[in-house]
Amino acid sequence: MCQCCGMPLEESILSQEPDGTPNVAYCQWCYTGGKFVYETQEALIDFLSHHLAHPQWPPEQVRAHLAQLLPQLDHWRDRGEE
User: Fold this and answer.
1) What b/e sequence results for 39-74 when a residue is b if at least 16 CB atoms lie within 10 Å of its CB, and e otherwise?
2) Phi, psi (degrees; rounded to nearest 5) at 24
3) Does residue 80 carry a pLDDT above 90?
4) HSE on the CB side for 32, CA within 13 Å?
5) pTM of the entire predicted model
6) All residues at 6 or more sequence positions from 41 whose CB lies less than 8 Å from its CB, including other chains
7) Which end of the chain, N or C, is more open, meaning fewer C-beta atoms within 10 Å of its C-beta?
8) Is 68 left (phi over 0), alpha (psi -120 to 50) or beta?
9) Which residues, other chains included, contact 58 with Cβ-Cβ below 8 Å and sequence gap of 6+?
């Protein structure tokens, strides 16, 4: 599971360090080129609530789910953003 967004990880979507070494903790969309894409949980939630929402899972439910999930992930705990 990506320790930034919670997406299930598989080899094809792993992030990489600048030297090309795979980083098994993050997906390529959260961590790329040695840098994190999202500076805050709120920025990530804003992005994902728009992209993950569908009629059976409206944006408000996506936001609520992510607000509970993200603080449990290593990236956000390590940053002190719980």
Assistant:
1) eebeebbeebbeeeeeeeeebeebbebbeeebeebe
2) -80, 0
3) no
4) 6
5) 0.88
6) 66, 67, 70, 71, 76, 81
7) C
8) alpha
9) none
List Cβ neighbours of 2 (8 Å cut-off, separation of 6 or more).
Answer: 8, 9, 25, 26, 27, 30, 73
Average pLDDT score over residue span 9-17: 96
Torsion angle in degrees (nearest 10) through CA of 71, 74, 77, 82: -10
72: number of CA atoms within 13 Å, CB side? 7
